[in-house]
Each structure stands twice: as C-alpha cells, then as structure tokens.
C-alpha cells in the first residue's frame, strides 16, 4: 500500500519518534492540529506500514549487557539451504540486535549485545556449531558515541 506523506504527517512521525508515549492531545498540540485528525493520520500511517511495532528503549548497560560486538562474517557458502540455516540461527539468537547482508569483501555484519567476552564466546561457539562460516572477525565497541533509530524527517 502506497501512502502520500505531507508535512503534517512528518511532524506527527517526528513526534512519535521523539516520544511514542505522548498522548494524542500532546501530539496534536505540538503539530498544530486536533486530536481526531491526528489519530486518523496515525491509523493511516500504521495501515500503510509506515509506523511499525512500538517498543521501549532499554539501557543495555544498566541491565548488565556491557559488551557490544560487531561481528564480520565471510562465508564461502551461498546456497539457499545454507542461507536458510544461517538466517534461522541469527533469528533464534536474542544476542543479535542487527544483521545486515553486505556488498563487498564481508558478507554479513552483526551487532551482538552480551554481558561480557565470555558470553560472546558462548554465542560464537553456538553460531559456528549451527552453520559453517569461512571467517569471523569480532570487533568490540569501546564506546557508543551515537545510537538512534530516529530517521531524519
């Protein structure tokens, strides 16, 4: 479904990105509209798939997940069965926060959040026991400088 997005829609989306827990009254006030038109626009945007799942952001370090690894994976396997098994392995691992298939020398990059290096090793051992990979390089993030899910509307 295709949907046209105007300036008011963009303002509503920006407000939802900033704080999705706001009331309809608060959003309407901030975008210069009233509650019912804002609610109708939000419903339209949800129905079109522009607005997806709403969640809360948790503080990983406060919950004991102090290590963030970026895992670079090269594979010599490109068959459909291998890819199916690999994607299942990634989806089944809650430590994997993001996974991307890349163009270039590296086939995949994963963002993996765990408690510590020992927990990363357990993740790594489990992954390589499920699927064959040619080469794995793990890069430990020393400091998160910026992290956002907000799009530049």
UniProtKB/TrEMBL annotation:
UniProt keyword terms in alphabetical order: DNA-binding, Transcription, Transcription regulation
Protein name stated in the entry: Leucine-responsive regulatory protein
Gene Ontology process terms (BP): regulation of DNA-templated transcription; response to amino acid
GO molecular function list: sequence-specific DNA binding
PROSITE patterns to which the protein is assigned, alphabetical: HTH_ASNC_1 (PS00519), HTH_ASNC_2 (PS50956)
Protein's organism: Falsiruegeria litorea R37
Domain of life: Bacteria
Gene3D superfamilies, per the entry: 3.30.70.920, Winged helix-like DNA-binding domain superfamily/Winged helix DNA-binding domain (1.10.10.10)
GO cellular component, one term: cytosol
Domain HTH asnC-type: 5-66
CDD domains for the chain: HTH_ARSR
